[in-house]
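Exercise 7. Predict the structure of Bifunctional 3-(3-hydroxy-phenyl)propionate/3-hydroxycinnamic acid hydroxylase from Arthrobacter nitrophenolicus.
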Amino acid sequence: MKTIGGSGLQSADVTIVGFGPVGKLLALQLGRRGHRVLVVDRKETGYPLPRAVTHCSDFARILQSVGLAPDSIPDVTQPYDDMYIWRNGQGETLVEVDWSGRGESGWYNTYFFNQPALEDRLDALVKELPTVTVLRGWEAGDISQDKDSIRVKLTRTSDGEHVTAVSGWLIGADGANSAVRQHAGIEWHDEGFFYDWLVVDVKPGPGLDFPHVASQLCDTSRPATMVPGGPGRRRWEFMRLPGETREELNRTEKAWELLARYGVTAENAMLERHSVYTFQACWATEWRRGRILLAGDAAHLMPPFAGQGLGAGVRDAMNLAWKLAAVVDGLADDSLLDTYGPERSQHATAFVKFSISLGQVICLTEPGEAAARDGRMIAEWGTTRKAPAPPRPGLGLGLHTGPHGGELAIQGRVAGPGKTTMLLDDLLGGPGVLLAKRSSMLTDISLEDQRRLGLIGIRLASLEKDSVVSNGVEIIKDIDGTYHQWLDTLSTPESPVDVVLIRPDFHLYGTATGARTKELTSGFLAGLRSRHLAAAS
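Solution. The predicted structure, encoded as tokens:
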């Protein structure tokens, strides 16, 4: 990081306000691409206690992309290959949600993790980057921007010293009360759904038989959630009842009282944390204003019932990082950033609304309403044995094309010549790929276009070797037939799919027949330079 003399200026390509998981992931990805990044956080140190505790297969693939594959950090995250059981106050099963197995991203569908431990791992990776500077204990203030740069006044919280950060772009990853969002004047939409819950994290002592199962207790006397909390931990969440104050609920004695029902006491466990949170459902109406961009909780906030709050934030980082890097590198017009909000907000708001729908089932304390809920859900479960499926939204309007553009790409096991079996992203060195059934389908891609794709982070790969092999094409073996099957499912008799272009954020730009590979590639590269991306896609 360059400091300009004694002028009190900090110069960077990108300034990030907020050094939580989303800010760290953004700093890591931009820094690894060689960009100068200044990160500012008002806290002197990282938050040492658990917050988010669950992540999905897609999140696991994102961790894989930065060198933190879940199977390499078993002390941080562990798979949950089981059911998520909902019961009423009488112990009757309302529904069982299948959280077992592996997802399309190649990892288990569900994990439970310890957030402070994960943040420590991300911290260590960020510290390795000479182009990233982290300023802790500094607060962002006044913001001004022009056509070439953006300035942020920074104040050190310990002594009031001021400096000015000057950069090309500013990312607000500073949480639900985002100072960046407020200074930018971006409207905050509130769905008006909020409840207070006591969150309790426990570490078991020797001999305590900790329950493994994840469960939801839909009991009018006290709705509660019980889930693993990552390796060696367990989490409970208890709703504040009508007539009960936050202060009454947020007492150590109350936490132990509520835990006693589950056999957890001060004699057999350690109370790591208890805190009352207000679960809310909100989102920013804009994700970009000029040179300001929002990510994570600064852009959206959801109740925890779907376990997708932090997951939505790291998806933001994956979408934004490659686009912003392309703009800073001069590989794309800055209008590419206009696709970030429309693409990501569709996914985020879908999960906000899904989380609300779950909360409307869980947060019932009126006996009549709960009895009607129980009768309906027990009957449905007894008849169908099928849980309501979470939404599977693709990207909103943006840089993608065709019927499958914007969908999440799968990840399967593959092998290269003489190489051991591994997941595709690991073999290629990243998620971006132009993947064809046969190598001859890639021969029309010019060396210049290959170079431009490579600078974005997109490699060329083929599932089979023809007599003609284009330079720069990785020939891979589809170990389980995963990719052949996937291409078949994307195909129709009218539109067979032989080639897919997967962006660096795991999403499809589009698909094509082998004869139209060059057209698919040219469309993507032209789109990076278009000033009308959102309208044209």
